Amino acid sequence: MSQAGHTGRDHGGGLDAAVAAFGGVRGDWLDLSTGINPVPYPVGEIDPEAWTALPDRGATDRLLTAARAFWSVPEGAAIVAAPGTSSLIVQMPWLSDARRVHIPRPTYNEHAAAFRLAGYMHEDESDAPVAVYVHPNNPDGRLWDTATVTDPARDLIVVDESFCDVMPEASHVWHAGEGQAVVLKSFGKFWGLAGLRLGFAIGTPHRLARPGCGAADVVDLAEQLGPWAVAGPALEIGARALEDVAWAEATRTRLARDAARLDRLVGWDLVGGTDLFRTYAVPDAAAMQEKLAQGRVWSRVFPYSKTWIRLGLPAPDQWDQLEAAL
């Protein structure tokens, strides 16, 4: 069955559709169709003013300072916070006027959709002036090397690192301080707070701007997003979480342990993935998805593969349900 979201494009999630097709209520289900950390960062108490006042400059500065430190953003790079990485993805086509883009497939489909909507031709030729690399790739976990993401022949290189926080040593953030790379970071995946809607773009000030019209030479990405782009609670929670390095280190250890446990439990052939999701090959992915659904476990299958199935990680109290469904 389709897992398309409200955009009509293929995504994980869509638990309401699974409930409608297989029964039960949402509370019965274990949703493993996304790669979101099942043990989210503890939100804690939020300053009431974060809900009632327009976000002030100090809250934004704290968030960006914490982000710079956490990801070791180089001095030559600028960083822009946004209400979710998706809101940045739709802006990426406008950072170049080249009109041709290379997006190696299979990968996260929102990038191709954004460039198509902006009038680009989605081509597979390696010489397109704009390129997009998801690093590590979703759904197969492929990593892209330095030469690829720093190709001087490109006008713009988008590096989507939404799942890279489980392996910070692989990050290409350092290259965002020079050249044509723009690195995207997602808060929702690693910190498990996708509903908070928080994402970041990192690149040189020149690269985080779109060609202007008329008298304007360039239009800054932050200006495109408008004032108060990130909600007050997201500014406060995001800053607090990014400052909590000990939580991040402990979380990486747990996720690695649980990813290995999942591999052992299912016993399927591993295609690839990250410590937040695992993609496997089975004889019939649609049949396996339906089998798991009978046990109220929702998984991810792909329209381009009859054999690939992807599972996120269960929370500590959810492993028995997955094992029973298997």
TrEMBL record:
Entry superkingdom: Bacteria
Protein name (Swiss-Prot/TrEMBL): Aminotransferase
Entry-linked Pfam families: Aminotran_1_2
SUPFAM superfamilies: PLP-dependent transferases (SSF53383)
Essential cofactor(s): pyridoxal 5'-phosphate
Keywords recorded for this protein, A-Z: Aminotransferase, Lyase, Pyridoxal phosphate, Transferase
EC annotation from Swiss-Prot or TrEMBL: 2.6.1.-
Taxonomic lineage: Bacteria, Pseudomonadati, Pseudomonadota, Alphaproteobacteria, Rhodobacterales
Entry's family note: Belongs to the class-I pyridoxal-phosphate-dependent aminotransferase family.
PANTHER family membership: HISTIDINOL-PHOSPHATE AMINOTRANSFERASE-RELATED, THREONINE-PHOSPHATE DECARBOXYLASE
GO MF annotation list: lyase activity; pyridoxal phosphate binding; transaminase activity
InterPro entries the record matches: Aminotransferase_I/II_large, NHTrfase_class1_PyrdxlP-BS, PyrdxlP-dep_Trfase, PyrdxlP-dep_Trfase_major, PyrdxlP-dep_Trfase_small
Organism from which the protein derives: Pseudooctadecabacter jejudonensis
Domain Aminotransferase class I/classII large: from-to ranges: 77-316
